[in-house]
């Protein structure tokens, strides 16, 4: 039987890397990666090439015709671009339609949230989904809840800083909102199942491992680490004030990262923390099918086991190879002990042309 030809956009990124791994584990995929010419020599891309991934050079910001050429012969396109790059998928979707791609997976991969003014980032993605539907391009939207890797707080001892992206020391309201969680590393394994499943065509899928509240996450980490973690509850009003202030100062488009980043962080807290959007129940209400319904035999990485690995010092952090500009760092006050964390919270290299680039 011929293999499904999958083209991955963003293979050098965090989500894209997980998906590349998930696809490469299966013999039924021929994996291609659309890579910007300047990124072709990135270690992550070279490593994927060595594992059999075929590189097709291209840029979402390039001419649509050349994107159509890049997509020739591809069955499935999966896009994993960063928050500021969502709209760049529109020409990709058009090219996919022209090239006869059988299924397009736009860059979802976030928490469950309703469209229409709750989360700017969600609405950016929804704009792309609407274009796909107008093109009648076959699609699957995949969301994944909150990554395990972002979900736990810092320990006072500093011993898990190595695996953290931010200090993550805030509990939203009373900390009892249930949150769907997924290990970043499992995303690719879910995607490998979803993209060849007829039941997920033109559907939204929530792939998730477990549901926990912030209080439960703190309890678990305290138990595993045998360290007491200070609980910094942020009142509901503070979250609303932050959202309002961030929205008022981020009206301008295109992006000003200094204004945009606080907005999307505050809106995440609003959505999963206050509104409780990021749950399987709400996902089903919104029309998603869930991984638990589709793949009852799937064995996800256990959250406790993951935290034990973190505390043992054997986990891998995310975005560890990236820095933000000094100018941006100034906007995020740091203590000395957490200094290194804040260089990673908004991950891009200074040489990148993305949202996080210094201007
Ligand atoms: N659920 C969660 O907890 C969670 C957490 C973080 C992110 N996310 C979501 O996951 C999505 C992916 O984020 P990420 O952090 O995994 O991404 P990332 O690591 O920043 O990687 C983005 C990738 O997109 C590629 N790219 C960007 N613009 C491109 C262009 N014009 N042409 C070709 N390739 C381009 C980049 O290529 P280069 O290598 O050339 O730079 C990079 O490989 C985001 O949209 C975000 O919403 C979810």
From TrEMBL:
Q: Does the keyword NADP apply?
A: yes
Q: Which GO terms describe its molecular function?
A: oxidoreductase activity
UniProt KW S-adenosyl-L-methionine keyword: no
> Where do the NmrA-like domain residues begin and end?
4-306
User: Pfam families this protein is in?
Assistant: NmrA
Keywords, A to Z, come to: NADP, Oxidoreductase
**What InterPro entries does the record point to?**
NAD(P)-bd_dom_sf, NmrA-like, NmrA/Isoflavone_reductase-like, PCBER-like
The protein's name in its UniProt record: NmrA-like domain-containing protein
